[in-house]
Amino acid sequence: MIAGVFALIVLPLVAAGVVALLRPFQALRALVAAGVAMTLGAGMLWLPLDRTVQLFGRPVALGEPVELMGRQLVLGGADRTALAAIFLVAGGLFLIGWRARPGPSFFSLGLTLLSLLSAALVVRPFLYASLLLTLAAALAAILMQGQVPGRTRGALRYLVMMTLSLPMFLVAGWLVELYALNPGDVGMARNVMLLLLAGFALLLSVVPFHIWIGPAACESPPVAAVFVLTVCNSAVWFLLLSILQEYSWLSARQDIFQILQLLGFLTAGLGGVLAFSSYDFSPLLAYGVLADYGCALIALGTRTPSGLTAVLFAAVARPVSLALLALGITLARERVRSTGFEKLAGLAWSRPWTAAALIVGGFSLAGIPPLAGFLGRWAEVRLMAATQPVYALAMLGVTLSVAAGVLRGTDYLLQAPPAPTYDSPLQEPEAREPRLMIAFIAVTLLIGLMLSLFPGLVESPLRAIVSSYTFLSAYTH
Questions:
Q1: Annotated domain spans of the chain
Q2: Looking at 148-162, 290-304, 371-385, which range is the least confident one?
Q3: What is the DSSP letter of 428?
């Protein structure tokens, strides 16, 4: 009998090898990578954990714990849903990578990352998860660099930040074992909390550890940057929730959630200010997602089921917003070789789908109704308005700041086209937008619209996830 948890780790690795051999066939590589990721994601959603199914003629026990080199691999209910979301988002980005030119190693590295992230979420204890995340960060840095000479600033900073978090988790893991022998040692519990907060501050790129996001958005292939900002970041969020669930003495501390809220407030505020001052869609993507991370941390800091539900709503909407922006930025770079507002002046008249992706993606990331990003932002603001109005006002301010930056870009896109000149990139003979990219934009717009108009499609599954985290049950409002 095969343990299902092995399939999550081994199958992406095997697919990565196959995809590497198919390098001359871009479409086939994208389809294979997306097919594997989406199949595993769908399997996590619909296959029961308590039953045995047949895979390649052999029985597979999905929920069977596994001992590997003295360490336990456990696929729990919350981990299952987290992995499903990660695989499905990755599958969508693999499809977009068919045409978006994310780099020659995007598919093989992306599948390998899925294997490492899966292992990080199912391994116990968390010490080994941090080691796996560090390995994943090394591959993600290569993914973001895109094998383009000279574009290493964002990738290198990302790798440094992720690597610096490892000592925090190593020491915290050692102290957790000591604390199990001395549960009355208050000072040791405080030290564990501070070390874990420092480690997750680095992993979640809160202020001041956000310095890689802006350069990565400007230098990296857009789809590769979005892969790291959504898939890799989601794994870190679920690891944080897993640790809080596993160690009740840690989640019972009120100060850890207060610090998370303070870090979220600083991160959201700085993200909003930087997005407001941006004159380029690439930094706007970076600082808009930074503001979104901060708002999610504020909501999680309420340590309530409603707060976690709002965080998950935002996590569902974020890939849609960022995928739209990635598609728009990719087309803008292909056409104008820039994403600066001035360079894109009048682009909406010759490339309406590119402009639509930039505008809708930006406003969705800001949290403006009736777009997908409004789901999470409205849930966060409504929760904070009932509990901590100051944070609610801050969230509204951040939303308006990011939206103002997008509105400025929209004004440039809708300006009258510039007068024809010999070297104007807008006057090149071939100005038609690729049909495949138009299809990707249309489908992503439709998905965002469905999420916005019918939030019940995801509300029930999200509430089921929240109910599995018992550390929140004692703190309802």
A1: 264-477
A2: 148-162
A3: S
- What pLDDT shows up at residue 58? 56
If you search the block for the tokens 């990080």, which residue do you land on?
120
Burial profile 366-389: b = 16 or more Cβ within 10 angstroms, e = fewer: bbbeebbbbbbbbbbbebbeeeee
Q: How many whole angstroms separate alpha carbon 330 and alpha carbon 314? A: 24
User: What is the average pLDDT value for the chain, to the nearest integer?
Assistant: 87
Residues in the chain: 477
Locate 417 and state its tokens.
Answer: 């086209």
3-class secondary-structure state, position 63: coil
Report the predicted TM-score, pTM, of the whole model to 2 decimal places. Answer: 0.91
Which structure tokens are listed for 406? Answer: 């997008």
Q: pLDDT digits over 175-233, tens only? A: 998 888 888 888 888 999 999 999 999 999 999 999 999 999 999 999 999 999 999 99
Asked if 399 contacts 377 with a C-beta cutoff of 8 angstroms, the reply is yes
Residue found under tokens 């932002």: 377
- What would the two tokens of residue 80 be? 């299952």
- Terminal alpha carbon distance of the chain: 46
